[in-house]
Specification:
The chain is an alpha/beta fold and 528 residues long. Helix content is 31%, strand content 23%. It has a nine-stranded mixed beta sheet, sandwiched between helices. Helix 10 runs parallel beside helix 19. The longest helix is centred in the N-terminal third of the chain and has 13 residues. The radius of gyration is 28 Å and the shape is elongated.
Length: 528
Amino acid sequence: MGTVTVFGGMTDKMTGKVWLVGAGPSDPGLFTLKGREVLEHADVVVYDALVGQSILNMIPSEAKRIHVGKRASRHTMPQEEISRILVKEAQEGKRVVRLKGGDPFLFGRGGEELELLCEYGIPYEVVPGVTSAISVPAYQGIPVTHRDFCSSLHIITGHKKNETKKQTDADESGQPEDAEYNIDFEALVRTRGTLVFLMGVSSLGDICRGLLAHGMDADMPASILQKGTTAAQKRIVATVSTLEEEVKRQGIETPAIIVVGKVCALAERFAWYEKLPLAGKKILVTRPKELISTMAKKLREQGAEVLELPAIRTVPIRPNEILSECFDRISEYDWIVFTSPTGVRIFFDEMKDRKKDLRALSGARFAVIGSGTGKALEERGFFADLMPEIYDGQALGRELAKACRPGERILVPRAATGNRELIDELKKVENIKIDDVATYDTRYESQELIDERAEFENGNIDYAVFTSASTVRGFAQAAAGLDFHKVRAVCIGKQTKAAADALGMETYMAKKATMDSVVECVEELCCG
């Protein structure tokens, strides 16, 4: 019987495989490289509610998505049904990813799912995840161990295994609906170590009283940590005897974890995440689906939680007879003009597909609209001969018109919806030949996993960042019905701002049409 190779092993053609993947606490930077690689090749993704939004955005659009778990008493299906889904999809020859918040084996019931996979002979792998028991305290300035304070760490669930096995699946920060309470407080107190309670927020009072009743010092530092590694993270530090009252006074939202131990006293001193310029801010970044967002990376480095949502998708125009004719006489062009990184990418991809040697471009000079486009050109081995100080089509047209000589031929490979300002400026030069060629279409993109409209209506998003007018229009289509007056939009240039203004957004424009300038604008708005 033939075999096919899949991640890390060989499987029968008629049998798929299951990967139990830990998604970490929420921050996409804490999702493992292997986890991301496996997820990118999934046919089916079975996921829980506590998987971070940024991780959900990594799920391939063509993959079948099955949502199987919610937090606390709200649930979608029992554990037995989840396990049966994994078996069924794998038996159909699918690559199935069981995506869990945190780590799949830390109160994530991964072991129970493996039992059924083993029973049916389904191949599987486990990709561990970064657990919230360590990462969430770390983001709140609490080292779970410190040689001056403790010599052990203990991770406890606030509920024991449900004997009837009818509760919902819960990952390490969720809470089963009807599990029974069972903690050996006396043993925990004797350890004198750091105690981390997962799935125990509703039992906070019982936990604190149980520890006190079995000899824990009433002044022992204790904390509750809300939504760690996200913009909504919050820390309440008190003592075992006062934590419940402080939570009632200050309020807390789930998911949250409880940490008890002397290391909690270090939180204020060791806190680091909240000191980043954009900590506590959630920024929406729209982008073409096929591009890795440099903007998102820059904002995350400053501490923001970034929600990346594809607003547009660029598609090469094929067949493209006009472009083919241009390539046939490519050596005749004096200037080749690029107005976007996407235009650069598609142009050189088309050259390669047509087996055109790059030496055919040796006689041409290159003009680009801005630094991002210039960088994309440099990655193909060419440096721009012209780049305007103001990064827009009109400025590019004016500068290029000054540099052109009568009789020269100019090729402008760009989006089918490219604005006319560039061409209008070039036409002011007498006797030049302009081939304005559409090489790709821009299509609006939407997704089903995250309700963009609700994110704004609930006040979860501080600012939306737009790097082109087309991403503004794509966002408007994806969030149809939203009152756009609720959107505070940071725009990369005047055309992008005009598109946002037309929708009634509260708009701000970066001083320069660069990624760094946009980030600076966001920082000024958030911190100024």
